[in-house]
Amino acid sequence: MKLDALNLAIIRHLRDGRKSFKEIAVALSVTENTVRSRVNRLREGGVLDIAGLIEPDALPGHKLVFMGVKLTGMNLVKKAREFSDLPGVVGVSVVTGRYDLILQVLIRGDHGLLDFFTEQLDPISGIQSVETFVSYKNLHVRVPYVLNPEEEN
Question: What's the pTM?
Answer without folding.
Answer: 0.77
